[in-house]
Specification:
alpha+beta; single chain; L-fuculose-1-phosphate Aldolase; about 40% helix; seven-stranded mixed β-sheet
């Protein structure tokens, strides 16, 4: 089996696991003969065996963009003659190019995020990841700013694991099996007790639909989780697909798509994209693993506005499959 086919199989596997990847989030890549094959922006890793979703880019040109270019320079590194569908490379293409490993895997692991949104994040990761070659990077706007922050954090050290504040996880290796084993090991180390996600069947509400995943309704029925869900947003894809924080009927503001009716259930607008259902489930999975006494770091209004106004994310949303 060739390496790109093997990567597609692995990508489809983790893309189908909501504790690793949700909707079009996360990305994987392979470096081969000067070409970086990276997941296309807006596509779901779960579809990696049903669609050709890897985009070829010139690795050297992307590295040049990290040094002194911009996101347009990263996109311009696409090898157009090998990209007949005109796909746009992932927002995190520069991150994949930066790391020297042949295989790079970036997920929105709920176990990682459940720690990466805490105020004591560095101490928690240091305790759990001891003995691994890892680095911590506080939240930075995705794309080139994040890649440059990672470059500064690793400082030419051989790093195989990167945990990113309010964002997710990166693991990398020269062998795909080794990358898969490392991902499993990190997940094992970061595991924590979780609130039982009892299912619910909310009643109908005009103009709204219950979140498709029954387990997500714990966000409304568990008081502590509801308080945290409505207190702020904690990672980029939540903001992109659900808007700033969740809301209750009494607190809902324009742009807030996830509505939590206490004791009843979680709702979305009737025309919400499928990604919104996946991100609602993700929020439940993340908050279920956060201890009651933990203090959390939510995005500022400026950080939320930057994500909502980002052209790259508007492009990704435009590719979402219709509900």
């Amino acid at each position: 089996m060739n390496d790109l086919k093997a990567l597609a199989e692995f990508s489809a596997k983790i893309g189908s696991d909501p504790e690793q990847v949700q909707a079009g989030g996360g990305n994987t890549s392979l470096k081969q003969d000067g070409t970086l094959w990276v997941k296309a922006s807006g596509f779901w890793l779960a579809d990696a065996l049903r669609s050709d979703l890897f985009v070829p880019v010139d690795t050297a040109r992307v590295l040049d963009a990290i040094d002194g270019g911009d996101e347009e320079d990263v996109r311009a590194a696409t090898i157009t003659e090998e990209n007949p569908s005109g796909l746009r490379p992932s927002i995190e293409t520069s991150l994949h190019a930066l790391l020297p490993h042949r295989f790079v895997v970036h997920t929105h692991s709920v176990r990682t995020i459940a720690i990466a949104i805490r105020t004591d994040v560095e101490a928690r990761f240091a305790e759990r990841l001891k003995g691994l070659s890892w680095a911590w990077v506080p939240y930075v706007f995705p794309g080139l700013p994040l890649t440059r922050a990672i470059r500064a954090a690793i400082d030419s050290r051989p790093i195989d694991v990167i945990v990113m504040g309010n964002h997710g996880l990166v693991v990398a290796a020269d062998d795909l099996d080794a990358a898969a084993e490392l991902l499993a090991e990190v997940e094992r180390r970061l595991d924590a007790p979780a609130v039982k996600l009892a299912s619910a069947t909310p009643p109908a509400r005009d103009g709204l639909k219950p979140v498709r995943h029954a387990a997500a309704h714990v966000l409304a029925t568990n008081e502590r989780m509801r308080e945290r869900a409505t207190a702020g947003s904690y990672y980029p894809d939540h903001v992109i697909f659900l808007g700033p924080a969740a809301a209750t009927p009494e607190t809902r503001r324009p742009g807030q798509h996830l509505l939590l009716v206490p004791g009843e259930g979680a709702y979305l607008p009737e025309d919400a994209q499928p990604a919104a259902d996946e991100l609602a489930l993700c929020l439940a999975l993340v908050l279920a693993r956060v201890p009651d006494d933990a203090q959390l770091i939510s995005f500022t209004a400026a950080e939320e506005a930057a994500l909502l106004g980002w052209d790259a994310e508007k492009y990704r949303q435009s590719l979402e499959r219709p509900a």
